[in-house]
Amino acid sequence: MKAKNLAELYDVATLDWGPVAARLDEGVPQAPGTGGPDRHTWWLATIDADGAPHVTGVGALWHKGFLWFETGETTRKGRNVARDPRCTMSLAARDYDIVVEGEAHLIRDPDVVAEMAELWAADDGWPCRVDETGTALTADFSAPSAGPPPWHVYRVTPLRATALQTVEPGGATRFTFDEATNRRVRPSV
Q: Is 3.90.580.10 the CATH number for 2-185?
């Protein structure tokens, strides 16, 4: 992994990816009162057909070095990543503001979909379950922007990440995941 210090002019050291990843591994609950200003929100930016950006809040998890989100295939974000998988996800978390650039891919592997359903139910308290197809999720409710069920699981393979440390000593670093890492984490869809 390459790291570029974006705060050299302030004589601040380059950040290490380890603590940033550890912060993501802790999870970021989305219930009211759990983050700033009142809760954590992951923001997903995709590319519309005309090249315009589209940004929306999503329920997301960091798991095994990937970002995961769910949405209906016919939602705007679902259609956007089907056409062009490039996207960014951003989050203001304790200690860091984080932007992850990568590629989102639809995951249909029943074992992975089941694993993610368990994690969303346990970690985020969203009582989703695998639907009758075994390749998508359903629940009694979801965010209105997710569209109607079924909701499909998407895995974002990180290509680059920028972290701004919001506590002392501060810092800002852009991380580029090396080709070996990208090959290792390339999703099988």
A: no
